[in-house]
Amino acid sequence: MIERQTAKKVAIASLMKGTWEKHEGMNPSFVVTPAGERVSRARILATVTGKFMAEDGAFASITLDDATDTIRAKTFKTVKPLDEVAVGDLVDVIGKVKEYNGEVYLIPEVVAKIADPNLELLRRLEIRALAAAEPAAPKEDLRKKLLEAIGKSKDGITFDALLKAAGEPEAAVEKVVNDLLAEGVCYEPSPGKIKKI
Q1: Please, are residues 10 and 44 in contact by the beta-carbon 8 Å criterion?
Q2: Do both 50 and 29 map to the same domain?
Q3: CA-to-CA distance for 34 and 182, rounded, in angstroms?
Q4: Which among 133, 153, 172 is the end of a domain?
Q5: What is the separation of C-alpha 30 from the centre of its chain, rounded to a whole number of angstroms?
Q6: What is the CATH number of the domain that holds 78?
Q7: Tell me: the pLDDT tens digits for 69-87?
């Protein structure tokens, strides 16, 4: 059974400044945001600033602007669900994140017009709160930083000292440390101490 990816609420800038990772087969491709989050399906609240509809009904695109950046949503072989929106509409879009020729764009699954402009402010606050809960540094950067700190200590380093050296949220540090222990890169010579193998 194929598990459907969750549509993540993100700012457009997070997608545009991220790194595209292409995967073949049943594994979805995704953008790795600057915060290290993998996004293969996105939920974006933005204003429609441009619209194009092919006369033969085989292609349509809208440009979305959420005040952080812009992204296009495109449909192929149909104009639905983009045919119902107009330039100036505030819309909530759920779609698959795709990339072609260096352009990151969305294949829209749901496009809903939003009548209440306060929802735009609410979404910005939600995204800000989600970003605060995420590790500030991408996981690979944090991993390097932690391995460096662990390597400097001959007898092993305590989790508290590691947390202080990392300068990142405890949950993010704990996750990377657990990964290092599970992979056998590090071990615990005594409870609460971490040492490199």
Answers
A1: yes
A2: yes
A3: 25
A4: 133
A5: 8
A6: 2.40.50.140
A7: 999 999 999 999 999 999 9
